[in-house]
Amino acid sequence: MASQRKPVLVLAGLPGRAADGVEQAARLLGEKPGTVVVRHDLSELREGVVRRTVRLGGRETVTVLELAHGCVSCTLRADLLPYLCLLAARDSVRRIVLALDPAFEAEAVCQAINDVTVTGVTDRADGPAGRDVRIDSVLTCIDARDWLADATGDETLAERGHATAEDERTVAQLAVGQAEFADALLVFDAGADLV
Asked: Where are the beta strands (DSSP E) in 102-158?
């Protein structure tokens, strides 16, 4: 039944001050009882390290993940989707906040939640995580000073140091995609204060 699925709020933002806005919003949203905040940090991706940080009830745990097949999206799908199913099964969890790393696109993550089959989760039949959770909303944090330049520039994520050399996406592609897919935009000024 759809009403029993745990709501998921997705937070996205570009590398830099907008990512600080994602962290600020995740902290505020995570204060509500029963809310768990999940974040995958790709800042050490070039060293082959991905960290999953989980905050619940004032406690934070960090798990280091190995890259499956050298593919970040495969690793995150193999970790994030089953983890969402596990969180959804907990009575203490009322809402899940996904604070996405700047290199990830909310649309692709949402599509994976709804469409990619999750296998191997104990006491759960195979199927998409979307059977256990539902995307409640997608919020994109935008830096008021830099967004237009980012959305119209030609710098790649790799050139900015937020992806591997094989990732040819531009910051502009990510900026426009994040804004288009969002249900709402959270605009921050230069001081990382919500406008």
From this structure: 117-118, 127-128, 133-143
